Amino acid sequence: MRKEVIVGASVATVATVVVAGVLLARWKKRDERRWRQTQRILRRFARDCATPVPKLWHVAFDLVSDMQTSLSDQSQTDFVMLPSYTSSLPNGNEEGLYYGVNLREDNFLLLSARLRGKHEPITDLQREEVDIPTEVISGSLKELFDFIALKLAVFISTKTKTDPIAPKGKLGFTVSFPLLEGPAAAASNKNVIRWKSFSVNDAVGKELAHEVNEALGKHGIDLRVSALVDATLGDLAGGRYYNRESVAAVTLGLATNAVYVESAQLSPNAGESKLGEMVIDMQWGNFNTPHLPITEFDTALDSESSNPGCRMFEKLIGGIYLGEVVRRVLLKMARETAIFGESVPAKLKTPYTLRSPDMAAMHQDTSENRDAVHEKLLEIFGIGYTSPAVREVVAEICDVVAERGARLAGACIVGIMKKRGRINDKKSLVIIEGGLYEHYRVFRNYLHSSVWEMLGSELSDNVLIEHSHGGSGAGAIFVAAAHSQCEEDDAISPSFVAAAAATTVDDDDDMDDRKFMAAAGTLNDDDEPSEWKDDDHMETASWRGDQVDSIAETTDQSDEDDE
Question: Between residues 97 and 197, which one has the greater pLDDT?
Answer without folding.
Answer: 97
